[in-house]
Specification:
Layout lengths: L1 E5 L11 E4 L2 E6 L2 E5 L15 H5 L23 H13 L4 H12 L7 H13 L3 H13 L6 H13 L3 H13 L6 H13 L3 H13 L7 H13 L3 H13 L6 H13 L3 H13 L6 H13 L3 H13 L6 H13 L3 H13 L6 H13 L3 H15 L5 H13 L3 H10 L9 H13 L3 H13 L8 H13 L3 H13 L6 H13 L3 H9 L10 H13 L3 H13 L6 H13 L3 H13 L6 H13 L4 H10 L2
Antiparallel strand pairs: 1-4, 2-3, 3-4
Length: 638
């Protein structure tokens, strides 16, 4: 019989592959894989992005040293020391890359040759060192020199390509694996699935997994399922991840603590804390033991909702189950209390963690300092750095200084922020783009636009090590427009585009708002109209800004037309949008239209804001007998 499967992942020239096994063979024809067999066996199919260039770099000739062949492996006692070294380094990695390369050179010149497991251990050591490109290079040398390899060797190389974001080469190696007579196993395919997910191809990963199951190429284990669930969760596809979780249970694959931790963490990050708590109850009921990671995710999720009573219950439950909070647990609590302005509670947590034998780290004190800054108590935050951290021997990092710099800028003490900025190099620290952006914003906030522009040109534009992002550009554009340097803002915007930076909708919102408020409505309209050509969709802020601009220029018909258009385009107006247009109707004496819109606004659960109510009261004072205004007063102010 013949079955066909379309290889959706094929991106370039397919590798013509024939892998014989008994009376069956897999052949690639016309972008389909066919399984020819005289029996009723399931078809052997795999999806791949075979890349001819990659194959040319690796020998795919039949392996002269198959696992069952007799190769003169060494049993020389003098090799024992080298073998022991490789065994140890495969678990920890070498201290220096040169040491690993020197060992490889020695291995090549050993007579007789060391067994394949020794070479695998060397590659494993390089992976531990995250020297993936070097591992690939040595693998290539092994193939060229005819050194025997096995499935573990290929799996290691495939893993390295995935880490190097070259999943296409990894799939090419899959072809080489088969051609050498090896049968890819669950590790091989799990690695490829992880590679696809890491390159933001969850759909292709799911397709590969589905077909592996469909054609019974592997029996996925808990690691395989966990890999896909983790990939789905990282991209916010919680419902799909839960469906796969239920599927694995149905197929008899028992989830473990890692499975539950992944799902619980995902649900908490998506603010679905109650569902996450349900999974905690489920896992304990099934006898699967939660660990501190489980509870940390749940505590973080509950803190995000200020559910302090539930947090305390979880901490008590941890104590009952003899699960000790770790530094991360306490850091979550310090950060959460700090963000809510509950500094005394945050300090109590730090004191308690010290009593429990846990040592606060730089993250702990950063969270405490951030809490002080949010309360406007920046000097107290600075005291934490200069006294507490110094006394405990805790070295500050760039974030420590960023917190203080941001705190002083918000207090309009930019000169103090600049002093801290200049202190960073003396502490052996490098400012980040966020550090520079905070100083830039501080200058603009205090009206020191000349210094802001000078700082940007001299400290940021000329800094080749600094990569500007959309946030930085948005701050600069806003500052320039706010200080009426619209031409300069447009010039910088053009420079951004020329440099290859792709503006997001926030950048366009900043520029549209700045242009419209500085008398350049037509330029703002042009930017707005061209958004679809840039692959961007206006959000509620974009529409509201344009509606406000039209109202300001007396173009009420355009404003009302855009208001109707935004909902037709799938963007619902918010309370700011309604209040903006209502005030536009007031300003242009369209009181009946304002009344209709106010009815609609209230029906959608919004209400008049302070500016709208004040505008209505001012109109009533000046036009006491206007029937439409009296009707509005009766409806909304009584």
């Amino acid at each position: 019989m013949r079955r066909a499967f379309s290889v959706s992942l094929l991106r370039s020239n397919p590798l013509l592959l024939s892998h014989s096994s008994g009376n069956s063979a897999v052949v690639a024809l016309d972008n389909h894989y066919y399984f020819n067999s005289s029996s009723s066996s399931s078809c052997c199919v795999f999806t791949s992005t075979f890349h001819v260039y990659a194959i040319s770099h690796f020998s795919t000739n039949p392996n002269p040293f198959k696992p069952n062949s007799t190769f003169p492996y060494s049993s020389n006692p003098t090799h024992a020391r080298l073998k022991q070294l490789l065994l140890e380094k495969s678990k920890t990695g070498f201290d220096k890359l040169d040491d690993a390369l020197a060992v490889f050179d020695k291995m090549l010149h050993r007579k007789p040759l060391l067994p394949v497991i020794s070479f695998n251990q060397l590659l494993a050591a390089l992976v531990k060192m995250k020297e993936h490109s070097v591992a690939v290079s040595l693998f290539k040398d092994m193939c060229v020199k005819g050194i025997p390899v096995d499935l573990f060797t290929f799996n290691t190389a495939i893993n390295c390509f995935c880490h190097l974001n070259r999943v296409d080469y990894a799939f090419s190696l899959l072809a080489g694996t088969i051609k050498r007579g090896f049968h890819p196993d669950v590790v091989t395919y799990t690695t490829l699935i992880r590679g696809l997910i890491s390159q933001d191809n969850p759909a292709e990963a799911q397709l590969l997994f589905t077909n592996l199951i469909r054609f019974k190429l592997i029996q996925p284990d808990v690691v395989t399922y966990n890999t896909i669930i983790n990939g789905l969760c990282k991209r916010g596809h919680a419902s799909t991840a839960v469906m796969l979780f239920r599927y694995m249970e149905k197929k008899g694959c028992q989830p473990n603590t890692v499975t539950y931790n992944t799902l619980i963490d995902c649900l908490c990050k998506l603010r679905l804390v109650d569902q996450a708590l349900g999974l905690l109850h489920e896992m304990t009921k099934k006898g699967i033991t939660p660990n501190v990671i489980t509870y940390n995710s749940l505590i973080q999720g509950l803190c995000d909702f200020n559910r302090w009573q539930d947090v305390n219950q979880l901490l008590s439950l941890m104590n009952t189950r003899n699960i000790s909070p770790d530094v991360h647990t306490f850091n979550i609590l310090v950060d959460a209390y700090g963000k809510e302005g509950m500094i005394n509670d945050a300090e109590d947590v730090i004191e308690f963690m010290i009593q429990r034998g846990q040592h606060p780290d730089v993250v702990t004190y950063n969270a405490l300092m951030d809490g002080y800054c949010l309360r406007g108590e920046v000097d107290k935050a600075l005291a934490v750095l200069e006294t507490t951290m110094k006394r405990r021997g805790i070295v500050p990092n760039t974030r420590t200084y960023n917190i203080l710099i941001n705190g002083y800028c918000k207090k309009f003490k930019v000169d103090r922020a600049v002093d801290l900025f200049q202190q960073l190099p003396r502490e052996g620290l490098s400012p980040t783009v966020y550090t520079y952006t905070t100083i830039l914003q501080g200058y603009f906030l205090t009206g020191r636009h000349v210094e802001a522009r000078k700082f940007f040109k001299e400290k940021m534009m000329l800094n080749k090590a600094l990569t500007l992002d959309n946030f930085t550009c948005s701050i600069l554009l806003h500052g320039l427009c706010q200080n009426r340097f619209v031409v300069e803002a447009l010039s910088f915007f053009d420079t951004m585009l020329s440099a290859g930076l792709i503006p997001n909708i926030c950048i366009y919102n900043t520029l549209i708002d700045g242009l419209s408020k500085n008398g350049h409505l037509e330029k703002a309209r042009s930017l707005f109209d061209n958004l679809p050509l840039k692959g961007l969709r206006p959000d509620v802020k974009t529409y509201t800004m344009m509606i406000q601009a039209y109202c300001h220029d007396g173009l009420l018909n355009d404003a009302n037309e855009l208001f109707l258009k935004m909902e037709a385009n799938g963007c619902l107006p918010d309370d700011v949008t309604y209040n903006t247009l209502i005030r536009g109707f007031f300003h242009n004496k369209k009181y009946n239209e304002a009344g209709v819109l106010m009815d609609e606004m209230c029906a959608r659960g919004f209400s008049a804001d302070a500016s709208t109510a004040s505008a209505l009261l001012d109109l009533l004072k000046s036009q006491e007998q206007n029937p439409a205004l009296l009707a509005l007063r009766k409806k909304f102010l009584t």
